[in-house]
Amino acid sequence: MATEAQGAEEGGLVFHPMDQFIVEPFIGDGIVSWYTVTNATFWTALAVLAVFALLVLGTSKRAIIPTRMQSVAELAYGFVYKMVEDICGKEGVKYFPYIMTLFMFIVSANFLGLLPTAFTPTSHFAVTVVLAMAVFLTVTILGFVKNGTAFLGLFWVSSAPLALRPVLAIIELISYFVRPVSHSIRLAGNVMAGHAVIKVFAGFAALTLVSPVAILGITAMYGLEVLVSFIQAYVFTILTCVYLKDALHPGH
Amino acid sequence: MEGELAHIGAGLAAIGSGAAAIGVGNVAGNFLAGALRNPSAAAGQTATLFIGIAFAEALGIFSFLVALLLMFAV
């Protein structure tokens, strides 16, 4: 893992743990323009291809007795479908394709990013902010289209005493607009922090005295990261469902 | 000097992450306490558990955001 680090030529494993997040051209080097194929582009495309392979190619045979790939695809489909149905209700099922897309993209980008020397698209705020803003705008527009001005009832808590309602309205308004911030930074922050911790342990692995502990630490953190990759994708998806539910049924 | 103070501030903001950890631990611990009392009702509440954890974590994320801003934007 350390050989790709920028400071490796200085002798030993001297590198910065954040070097792995640098966006650079995939082939050769030079400046990064909007059309440059970077490592970010490559791993994002790979994540999309992995989803395509699993869901389209995996289920193309439609076998009664599913192959392993078809089983995984069906499990993923059922998992997200049940989540949307449980939280948003029957009306929410209409928006299931969008939520399934989000979940599959995030989970495959996270898992592919765990490969050594891989680049994780979801560790960048630029990626997760776009995903979260898309959810935020979709949900807000949908709320107004579906409910008209009744959507503003989300901020006017009718079960609270009248004197408290303006105060609650301000708090609800702030918490509503802060949603995309926490939604995006939760995913990118968790993924980035986990990868950085693994690299910090990798730096300690160069010291002979502590290297067994460091390698144990890397192994343990890697196991945790596999768990975190899935849980963060799950949390992102479930929060999308919760926001969607608020848009469909704004009454508390 | 200002840059150094910003670094100290970023370190102080990291305390918020610890506070968020306490919050998340509280949510998960209370869920487990309830789940052990009535295990049959626990399976239906895992979504609520994760939503609760996500909301408790959100405030910790803001301290992380403040730390990031102090490190890279100030």
Automatic annotation (TrEMBL), chain B:
Belongs to the ATPase C chain family. It is a multi-pass membrane protein. It is found in: Cell membrane; Membrane. Pfam families: ATP-synt_C. Residues 8-70 form the V-ATPase proteolipid subunit C-like domain. The record marks 57 as: Reversibly protonated during proton transport. Signal peptide: none annotated. One of its GO terms (molecular function) is proton-transporting ATP synthase activity, rotational mechanism. Keywords: ATP synthesis, Cell membrane, CF(0), Hydrogen ion transport, Ion transport, Lipid-binding, Membrane, Transmembrane, Transmembrane helix, Transport. The chain crosses the membrane at residues 12-36, 48-73. This is ATP synthase subunit c. InterPro entries: ATP_synth_F0_csu, ATP_synth_F0_csu_sf, ATPase_proteolipid_c-like_dom, F/V-ATP_Csub_sf. GO terms for cellular component: plasma membrane; proton-transporting ATP synthase complex; proton-transporting two-sector ATPase complex, proton-transporting domain. Key component of the F(0) channel; it plays a direct role in translocation across the membrane. A homomeric c-ring of between 10-14 subunits forms the central stalk rotor element with the F(1) delta and epsilon subunits. F(1)F(0) ATP synthase produces ATP from ADP in the presence of a proton or sodium gradient. F-type ATPases consist of two structural domains, F(1) containing the extramembraneous catalytic core and F(0) containing the membrane proton channel, linked together by a central stalk and a peripheral stalk. During catalysis, ATP synthesis in the catalytic domain of F(1) is coupled via a rotary mechanism of the central stalk subunits to proton translocation.
